[in-house]
């Protein structure tokens, strides 16, 4: 073993899936060691190689998108670089997603350690008909990029050579300094001059890194400099600068900086990324030229959504019919074998009338999820976000907001709300959280299906559903626009998005997704909805009406008196004055309130209410029919009811997630409750009263 080897310590950084591990294996072969970073479960891979007179020690950092320390992986990567001070960093960049990958590069470069870009996946880039001019990258920006195909072990020697050359200063790589503009630069300078007052501090960390992150009020950095003699002064100046910048750009500090960085990235990409040949056979490209066309994109997206609803309603209709007949039969059978009385009512009106009403729509849910999963798996849904991003930019909004809305439509508002996490700007995130619940999630779907089925012909069903969907999007965008113009002002941040290639989806994949989401619906029916149904049934059945009220009247009248005099009936009467002006009676009010537990409960509650009114369980008819025959309902009221359901307060689970995601501030929770309730009432009022004036539904 030679002992006069020069040791070079390097680490590999990069976004997840950029080929870091492949390069690490190419570099170190079998000479590697896997452990954990101290104190955390994040895996630490180390290895080394010998080349000429050099021994190069390599650490494979976890895959990260930035150094903002929003995850354990990012903290580990950042700590490692700052504390261990490697001689240089190899930033593995997926060349086919050059712009997004470059974000991490700018952050690494700010740390003051020399960075070499390992420009990986150039084969993929070439297939896209593009190339990156590495010479120009060096000449114009002082960035050293070495092309690689890591999974084929191509370019590994070039990387090793580059490492040695940079280490020996044979190649001069520059630290990239983003131009943050005069206003911000002045503030950075103010902070940096204070940092230089503490010589030790300035020597220990990259001054630029400290100043940028102090302005961002980064906890981690504040902690690091806690012992400095200039700590108080620094903190004061940094916070003041931060607030100034925030005010000036009327946006959060993080998005102001991200904006500047992406502006720089765009300008670099514009210079060095070239399209050399449009490969003729790239099917994705051809399709994209049509579906992303400036004029056709939006209509095509509308058509796709229309197709989804048309398919769902048409194909599921017979199945829903069978389910309903099955439930009717069950109801009749239970009525026969269980003697008349409270228990019969509990089973027939409560469980079967309530939960059964929700289960009846199970086929519809499955078909809807099937259709959506199909478009997701082809890669089209990602395009929808891209299309809407362009459109929404005109309103000062963000494409990622629409991503949340799509996720909510595709199943449930909860994952939609969580998807908003990827939005850097706090204001944009809040806006998204506020409007995502407007979407017609899987739980609201049965309400829509029920009322549309009851008041519209089978032929019109999908059309009405589609109009409702468009309305939900328009309402959400309108609301977002208002928020953006009033209490949550700010510019939208840049947003770089990868479009996956189109794929022929596999039937198995689609069925699996459909089933996963469908099962959640069943689970909910067996838990929350069942529980709520029991509560509602009990509330409607007690206290038992008696005495004079039920003397000398028909059984049917007695049933309705019972509902009227029950606990919940009284509650219904109590709230009725508030909802009369928007066309609803107490029954509708009860259903809406119970729907706060879970939106499907609106349906199950109506099921129980109407089932209790029916005296003979043996000729029960489907809920839709009962609604249609109830003089308290008509087409106009049904439409108003659906619009109310679009807007009013989301279910408790969604509200809880909203609370957490919006930073656990009571202020926003109260705001959400207030604004959704008021908006729902006002919109319904306008629709109902205007509808009456125009002579709809008497
Ligand atoms: P990591 O997540 O950054 O560690 O990435 P991996 O090394 O695990 O690579 C992710 C995937 O990309 C694997 O399937 C690799 O085989 C593949 N891959 C890595 N480098 C290249 C490349 O240069 N070209 C292509 N086409 N695929 C690559
Ligand atoms: Mg890996």
Main sheet properties: 7 strands, mixed
Ligand types:
guanosine-5'-diphosphate, magnesium ion
Low-confidence stretches: none
Please bin the fraction of helical residues: 55-70%
Please tally the β strands and state the result.
9
First and last CA, distance: 97 Å
Shape: elongated
Could you tell me the mean pLDDT? 87
Question: Helix count, per DSSP?
Answer: 31
Beta-strand level of the residues, as a percent range? 5-15%
Computed structural class: alpha/beta
How many whole angstroms does the radius of gyration measure? 31 Å
Q: How many separate domains make up the residues? A: 3
Could you give the order of strands across the largest sheet? 2-3-4-1-5-6-8
